[in-house]
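Reviewer 2 asked us to include a model.

Predict the structure of this chain.
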Amino acid sequence: MRLKLTLKIVGNKQLPLNYNYPLSATIYKLLQFGSPAFSEFLHEIGFQEKGKSYKLFSFALRFNKIPEINNNRFYLKSENVSLFISSPLIDTFIQNFIIGTFENQFIEINYNNINSKFVIEQVESLPAPIFSNTSKFTLLSPLVIATKKESNGKLIPHYFRYYDDINEINRVFNQNLINKYKLVHNKDYQGNGIKFSWDTNYIDKRLAANKKVTKLITVTKKGGIVTNIKANEIPFTLVGDIELIKIGYECGFGSQNSLGFGLADAN
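Predicted model (structure tokens):
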């Protein structure tokens, strides 16, 4: 299920450039109004599969007008922004989040001495798309496809870019969706998976215009732990099992979904 929140900023129209982690933290705080136990479980533990933790939700913050960027902050050109929240966990995540929006009615994003406060003006449920075996997507938030690779005896994150081996991208992309499928449906996946492909025309046009198709996003977590996440901002096509496509649409595609990555819209 997907929700759209219409937010109105209060006071200074500024937002920290690295808002992903503090906005994610605010979402957990809203969940606490409905269920402190579920919020704590999701934040601290999450749903476990094959040694990995999944939160099974994603979000994307969208601006009505393109803001200016200066001094590590956005200067908003409109007092309204849209926040999209998506999860297949209707009875737990969605229900508790909605309770939080009615109880609190504010969203605050605090980072690096920048305090951004938004009034929640409206919460609406968006109709689910009708998917086909060939579905095209545009991104509401950047897509992260990652795995671990050994370097100097240590396992470090490897973030896939559009020029990496598409077969390896498909392997990692499918396994991520299969793990989420098992957690959501509480059963093993028995289908044939999907085939992922980038929109190469989009890539060619952007590069020809000297514009980027990837983005480096710095996430500063509690305790000052800094992570640089390499993400893609490219439309893509999925061919294959509709059930896996639905899982990605609801949970977010790829990894780092609970930090606001991988939320996509069906064309």
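The chain has two domains: 2-126, 134-266. The chain has a mean pLDDT of 95. We have added this to the supplementary material.
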